Amino acid sequence: MKTPEELKYTKSHEWIRIDGDSAEIGLTDYAQSELGDLVFVNLPEEGDAVTAGKTFADVESVKTVSDVFSPVTAVVAEVNSELADAPEKINEDPYGAWLVKVSGITGTEELMSAAEYEAFVASEKAEH
Amino acid sequence: MLIFDKGTKGRRTEYIPACDVPVTELPEGDRRIAPLCMPELSENDVSRHYSELERKTHGVNDGFYPLGSCTMKYNPKAADAAAAMEGFTSIHPLAPKEDVQGCLEVLSTAEKYLCEITGMSRFTLQPAAGAHGEFTGLLLIKAYHRARGDMKRTKIIVPDSAHGTNPASAAMAGFEVVNIASGPDGCIDLDTLRAACDDTVAGLMLTNPNTVGLFDKNIAQVTGIVHACGGLCYYDGANLNAVIGIVRPGDIGFDCMHLNLHKTFATPHGGGGPGSGPVGCRADLVRFLPGQVVDRDAQTGLLSFSKEPDSIGDMRSFYGNFLIVVRALTYITILGRQGIPQASSHAVLNANYMMACLKDTYHMAYDETCMHEFVMSLEDLKDKTGISALDIAKGLLDAGIHPPTMYFPLIVHEALMIEPCETESKETIDQAVEVLKALKDEALKDPEDLKSAPHHTPVTRLDEVNAARHPKLRWSAPGDSAM
Amino acid sequence: MGSYIPATGEQEQEMLGKIGVSRIEDLFAGIPAELKVKGGLDLPDGVSEMEALRGMRSLADRNRIYRKIFRGAGAYDHYIPAIVSEVISKESFLTAYTPYQAEISQGVLQSIFEYQTYICELTGMDVSNACVYDGAEAAAEAAAMCRDRGRTKVLVSGAVSPYILSVVKTYCFGSGCEVEEIPAEGTATDVGALQKKLGPDTMCLIMAQPNYFGTIEDAAAIAEAVHAAGAKLVMSVDPVAAAVLRSAAEYGADIAVGEGQPLGMPLSFGGPYLGFMATKQAFMRRLPGRIVGETKDRDGKTGYVLTLQAREQHIRREKASSNICSNEALCALCAGVYLSAMGPQGIADAAQQSMSKAHYLSEKLAEAGFHTLNGRAFFNEFVTDSPVAPASVMRALSAKGILGGLPLGGAHKGEILWCATEKNTKADIEEAAEAAGAAAKDPAAAEGKEA
Fold first, then answer.
1. C-contacting residues in B 320-359 (Cβ below 8 Å)
2. Are residues C73 and C86 in the same domain?
3. Is the peptide bond before B454 cis (omega within 30 degrees of 0)?
4. Residue of C76, C77, C68, C78 whose CA lies nearest to C400
5. C289-300 per-position pLDDT tens digit
6. Partners of B233 in beta bridges
C-alpha cells in the first residue's frame, strides 16, 4: 500500500493535495484495492460546491457503488474527464488519477498525515 | 452466433398475403431514412436459432433451482394451458363490457381469493411486478397522509435486511429512506424501531418472514409501534410462500401489501418476467387504489369497471398482466383451501430438512428453525481456503444445480440463501446436499480447481469488468463503429 | 384436489426426524398462536386439473371473440406467425429466472442482447434496455430520466394515449415533478401552445408518433422547439410503424419508448405487454432496468452478461435510477422472435399494409357518412365524426361480428377512433363501412331492433 508523504488523508479513504486555497482530491491506494476493479465514476460538474465530510461523487465496481466524500469545503474548478472512459486509471495510478480539482477552500475535515493514515488503516484491518 | 450474423439477403418467409387495397404512401418527409438492418431468415433458421438458445438456458425444468427469495417452484402446466385459451388471449382490453364478462369474472374472483388469503379489503391487479406493487403501495400511503392534511410525514422506515427494491420504491415515491439495523437475531430491534418512529414517519416496509428466512415473532409489536406514531405498515409479499394459509398480513397489523403472483401463485418467471404484483389494502385505503376495480351491478348482474374516487391514477395501461392473473386463479382453484396451506407447510419442511442436512458442513447464519429459506455464511470458509460464496455457486453449475442467491441479504457476509420450495422431492434435496458437501471437500483439498469453476457450461466465467468498462450493448454490422 | 407436492407420508416422517420435530406444525411454533389463521381459509375445496380447466374454459367462453377488429387505441390486432408462440413456450425460456448466473443463462442473455439490437434498429437509438412493464410505464420511466438541475416539470402532449398521461401523472405524484398537459389542437400537438409552455424548468416533452389519434405529428418542428428550450424529447413510437416511418432518432428524439405489444403479443385483455426504451449513448447510464452487454469468458469465447448493474436497485438501493426488478422478459423474447420471423421486408409490409388499409377504411367510412378529422397525414388509426351516437354504430357492427372503432370521450366526445391492420381484408373493411353506414341511416334497424 502506497501512502505518499506529501499528501493528506481522510478516514473515508480520500487523499488531498493542497496547494494554497486549491487542491486535488482522489482515492487512496488502499481504497482502490478494497473496491476492486472500478468500472465507472460519477463526478460533479465544474462550479459545484462541495462540503467537507459530504459526498460529492461515487465510484462503481461491477457489484458495488461507493460514495466519495470531500475532505474540504470548496468549489469544483475542474473534473478529471479522462476517468469517464478510463476509470481503471484509479486502480492503476490512484495518486495520479485525481477526481476533481477544487478552489476557494473555506473549511477542512480532520485530515491525517501519511503515517497517521497508515496506522488508521492498520487498525481498521485489525477490527475487520 | 447472433441472429444478426445468420441468414442471407433476399431470404424470407411470407406470413401475410399481398395487399388487397390501394397503397397509401407516407409523406416523403416522414419516411425512414436509415434502412432497417435486420437478419433475413427462413423459418427453419429462426426455429434452430431459438432451440440453440434454449439449450443454453437453465430453467426449473432443467434442474433444481433453490434461488433464495425468488420462490422458483414448479409451476403446474394447467395454469399455462388456461392462459393460452383463445377466449382470454384474443380479447381486446377496450371491448364492451358485455363482451368481456369472462375476463371480469377472472379479475373479480382472483381478487376475492387474494383478499381471503391476505386479510385485505380489496386489491388492484394493475401492478406488473413486485417492485411495481411496492411503488403502488407507497403511493397509497402518501395519498392517505395527504388526504388527512398531514404533510410532514416524509420518511419510510426500511430494515437493513430488505430487498433493494424497498428503498428504491420509497425513493421513487418521494420519501426519505430511514434504514434501521436489524437485531442480532435478524429481526427488527424494537428499541431501534421505537427510536426511529415519530410524526414524520409515513410508514414501514417489511418482509415477513424476513430475508434471512425467519418469522419476526414480535410482528404484532412492530406494527403496533408504527401505528402508534401514526404511520402505516406495508407488507412486502416476496416471502408469502412460507405462510400462505397460515398467517394473513391483514391479521398481523399490515395496512397494505403486494404479493408476487409469479412467485407464490404459479407463473413461471420467463427469464425475468412478466410477473404480477397485485396490491391489497385495508378498507379506508381502497378509495386511493389505482386503475379500475371490478364490481357487479346488482340490477343487471353484469360486472363492470369503475374508478375509485380518490384514485392515485394508473400504474400502467389497462388492468395489469391479465394472463398472469388467469394463471394464479387456475392455481388457487386447483389447490383450494387444503392445498394452499399444504404448499407453505412443505416449503417450510423442505427448507428445514435441507438446513438440517447441511448444518454440520456449512455455517448457518441463524441456526434455528427457519421458514421457507435459510442463509449460510461462508465467511469462515473463505478465510480458511480462499473459496468464496461465488466459487461454491459456480461449482454448483457443473452439477446442473442453479446456485442459491448470493451475497444477499447484505447483513450476512459471504451469504448463500437457499429456498428449496415445496415442489422439490427429498431425492432432489438429498442430491443437492451431497453436491454441496463435496464442494466443501473440494474447497479444502483443491481450492484452485474450484476457483476456475464452472468447467462444463457453454461459457466459463465471464469478464464482467470489461463488460461494464467498455459497454457493447448491441450488435453492429461489420465495419460499423461498435457501440 | 390437485397437488404438486412430491413428498410421501413416509418421506415426510423421515424429514421431520432429521429436523428433530414430530409434526410439520412444530416448524411454525415460532409464530404466536394468536396470529395464525383459525379454521382454515374460506376458499373452495381444491379440484382436479380437469375440473379446474373446465371452469376456466367456461369463463373464457363467456368472452366474445371478434374475428374482425377495427379497434386499436393502445392494443393492436396484428398477425402473429405460428412460430412465435411455439418458441416462447419452450420450457427453459418459460421457467428460467432473471439471468444472474451468466454461465447457464447464455440463451436468455443472448436473446435480450438481440432484442436490444432490434429496438435500437427500430428507434434509431444507440442503446436499449431489456424492457420495462408496458408502453405507458416506459414513458413515465423516460420522464424520470430527464430530471436535471432546476428542471422539474414534465410536459405531455394532449395527443398521447390517456394511459400515458395518467401513468406519468401518477409517477410524478411520487417524484414530486410537476406535470402539464398541452391540449391537442384537433388531433395533433399544438406547437404554438407548446412553445409558450416550454421554459428553463422543463424536463421534457412526451409526445407520440404516430399519436393516439393516428396522426403523424410535425415531429421535427416539435423536436426543434423542445431542444431550443434545453429540454429533452421523449417520443412514444409504434414499433410496427417504425419499420417504415422516420425513426425516433431521425426525428430528433432523445429517448424513444413505446408499447411492444404489436410485436407478436396477443391482445390478452391488456397484458402482459412490453415497454421498450432506447436512448442516445450520452444517456445510457440513466436508463432504468436491466441491460445486457457482450464480453469474453476466460477462454476468450464471446458471451453475454447483465451489465451496468450499479445503476440498479439491488446495488444502489434508494439512489437507484428506478426500482424495477422483474420486467417482461418473455415478451421481449416474443418481440425478438416475431421480428426474426417477419424479417425486414415482412415487418415493413405489415406496417405499409396497416397504413393502406386504414386509409381505405377512412375512404369507405367517408362514403358512409363518417368523416375523417385528422387534418394531417395519419398512419393506421384515425378519428371520424359520427352522424349518430357512436354507441349505436358499435352495436350495429357488433351484430355483424365486428369490433368497431373506439368511441372517444372528453373533448372528442361523439367521435370514433378507428384502426386497421394487415389482418383486415378489403371485404371486411367494406362490410364494416357498410354496416356503419346502415347504422347512420337507421340506427335501430341496424342494431337488429324493432323499429
1. 320-324, 326, 329-330, 332-343, 345-346, 348-350, 352-353, 356-357
2. no
3. yes
4. C68
5. 999 999 999 999
6. B204
Which of C337, C366, C393 terminates a domain? The answer is: C337
Give how far A60 is from chain C: nearest CA, Å: 6
Using CA atoms, how far apart are residues A114 and A8, in angstroms rounded to an integer? 6
Instruction: Determine contact: C3 vs chain B, CB below 8 A.
Output: yes
Chain A hits for C316, CB-CB cut-off 8 Å, are 65
- Asked whether residue C283 falls in the same domain as residue C364, the answer is no
Q: B468 and A88: CB-CB below 8 Å?
A: no
B408, B461, B469: best mutation site toward chain A, by most A Cβ within 10 Å?
B469
Residue C222 in any domain: the answer is: yes
On whether the pTM is more than 0.95, the answer is: yes
Flag whether C43 is in a domain: no
C374 found inside a domain: yes
Distance (Å, rounded) from C-alpha C313 to C-alpha C307?
13
What are the φ and ψ backbone dihedral angles of C231, each rounded to 5 degrees? -95, 170
B403-441 exposure pattern, b = at least 16 Cβ within 10 A, e = fewer: bbbbbbbebbebbbbbbbbbbbbbebbebbbebbeebbe
Give the structural domain span for C321.
82-337
CB-based contacts of B76, cutoff 8 Å, min separation 6: B266, B330, B331, B334, C2, C4, C49
Helices in C309-425 by DSSP H: which ranges?
A: 313-316, 329-367, 390-399
Identify the CATH assignment for A8-109 out of 1.10.10.10, 2.40.50.100, 2.60.120.10, 1.10.443.10: 2.40.50.100
CA distance B392 to B398: 10
pLDDT in tens, chain B (483 residues): 999 999 999 999 999 999 999 999 999 999 999 999 999 999 999 999 999 999 999 999 999 999 999 999 999 999 999 999 999 999 999 999 999 999 999 999 999 999 999 999 999 999 999 999 999 999 999 999 999 999 999 999 999 989 999 999 999 999 999 999 999 888 999 999 999 999 999 999 999 999 999 999 899 999 999 999 999 999 999 999 999 999 999 999 999 999 999 999 989 999 999 999 999 999 999 999 999 999 999 999 999 999 999 999 999 999 999 999 999 999 999 999 999 999 999 999 999 999 999 999 999 999 999 999 999 999 999 999 999 999 999 999 999 999 999 999 888 999 999 999 999 999 999 999 999 999 999 999 999 999 999 999 999 999 999 999 999 999 998 876 544
For residue C366 the three cell numbers come to: 367517408
B contact chains, 3+ CB pairs < 8 A = A, C
Q: Which residue has the cell 389497462?
A: B318
C266 Cβ contact partners less than 8 Å away, ≥ 6 residues apart: B89, B90, C80
Q: Which residues contact B330 (CB under 8 A, 6 or more apart)?
A: B76, B78, B79, B82, B83, B266, C52, C53, C56
Given a contact cutoff of 8 angstroms between Cβ atoms, the answer to whether B393 and B376 are in contact is no
Q: Which of A38, A62, A92 to mutate to test the interface with B (most CBs of B within 10 A)?
A: A62
Same domain, C375 and C228: no
Check CB contact under 8 Å for B341 and C46: no
d(C-alpha B269, C-alpha B271), whole Å: 6
- Cα angle B391, B397, B403 (rounded to 5 degrees) comes to 70
Structural domain contains residue C388: yes
Q: Which three cell numbers stand for residue B98?
A: 358485455
Q: Which of these three, C287, C317, C337, is where a domain ends?
A: C337
Q: Are residues C114 and C141 located together in one domain of the fold?
A: yes
Domains in chain B and their CATH numbers?
78-334 (3.40.640.10)
CATH number reported for the structural domain that contains residue C90 in this entry: 3.40.640.10
